[in-house]
Design goal:
The chain is mainly alpha-helical. Helices cover 72% and strands 0% of the residues. It contains 12 helices and no strands.
Length: 338
């Protein structure tokens, strides 16, 4: 569990004086991020009556833009707000950074093959591999109700995937590719969460964690792009399509601001409130994607979605009951950087 942020005044957060305002901006940030993510990876730019336009295909370039802006935001936050003395060896951030970059790449690439609702639901079900990674990395033990809710989530996801036919633009092969990429995203992201959780033993703040991870993420991504010669091509694509440049910039702003809002919410209101808000946001994101991009969900698929989110809320309720009884609950999985 990330340590609570200092409650003292800080210019980076004082602009939004009410918890309702922060909640609204957080939801707006991540809903906008989800809509733009699907737009950038699945639609063409520069289409005219005589030309179909071209699609942006380099997910690493988007990851780099996201990480650079997140690094700048976290750095400014650390300068403007008093932070604990940093004691973690810098190299230890590199492990979480590498898996963070790989999970982000898998997340963007998966949208080339599967629908956004499928991706969101798979992300909501990552509690299962996170528990497995917790056993392997942190040697954690779990309560019976946690296994029960994990099973319900698995059932709900299976109902959704089996009832939803492939997208018109997808074949069985490409859908399988998307599911493999989603599995990679969940595996890498689960390791990132557990490794970050272990790093918090150094008593750092969440924003210091955000800065360290994004610093190494930028290094890894830049080296990879330079090696492939893709950094210049991504820049040229931005130059050819100003709409893409605006979308990529807004995507990065929403990602960075969303991370700050996540850390502040957990520090001020606790993990339970954060989980409820994020669960609500994921449900809204699926509905919004269906409305904007024409995805269809069957009755059985919709029931599967309901089972997943009901199981997530049941986890929140069970944790709250354990806390009220004075029992030690298993720490909530730390939020992933998007």
């Amino acid at each position: 569990m990330p340590p609570a942020m200092a409650a003292s005044w800080c210019p980076a957060t004082s602009w939004c004086s009410t918890s309702g305002g922060r909640t609204t901006w957080r939801q707006v940030s991540y809903l906008t991020w989800g809509v733009l993510q699907e737009r950038v990876m699945t639609r063409s730019y520069g289409a005219t009556a005589t030309s179909p336009g071209e699609r942006f295909t380099d997910s690493q370039f988007l990851v780099l833009m996201n990480r650079v802006l997140a690094l700048v935001v976290a750095g400014l936050y650390c300068v403007l707000c008093k932070q604990p003395r940093h004691g973690a060896p810098m190299y230890r951030y590199s492990f979480a950074s590498l898996t963070n970059v790989l999970s982000s790449w898998c997340q963007y690439e998966a949208l080339k093959f599967i629908s956004f609702p499928t991706q969101v639901l798979a992300k909501a079900s990552k509690v299962i591999p996170v528990m497995l990674m917790g056993k392997l990395v942190s040697r954690r033990s779990y309560e019976h109700w946690e296994y029960l809710t994990a099973g319900l989530i698995s059932i709900g996801v299976s109902m959704f995937l089996l009832s939803s036919g492939p997208e018109p633009r997808s074949s069985r092969a490409t859908t399988l590719s998307g599911l493999i990429l989603l599995a990679g995203y969940i595996a890498f992201d689960s390791f990132t969460s557990n490794w970050q959780d272990a790093l918090f033993a150094y008593k750092m703040s969440s924003v210091q964690m955000m800065f360290g991870v994004n610093f190494f993420s930028c290094l890894f991504t830049v080296v990879s792009l330079l090696q492939q010669g893709a950094l210049l091509e991504g820049t040229r694509f931005m130059g050819r399509h100003s709409e893409f440049a605006a979308h990529a910039l807004l995507l990065s702003v929403c990602s960075a601001c969303g991370q700050i809002f996540i850390f502040y919410t957990i520090g001020q209101f606790g993990a339970a409130v954060f989980t409820i808000i994020m669960t609500l946001r994921q449900a809204i994101a699926i509905l919004l994607s269906c409305l904007l991009y024409g995805h269809t969900i069957t009755v059985v698929g919709g029931l599967g979605v309901a089972v997943v989110f009901a199981a997530l809320l049941l986890r929140v309720y069970a944790r709250g009951r354990l806390k009220q009884r004075g029992k030690k609950a298993v720490p909530t999985e730390p939020p992933v950087q998007v």
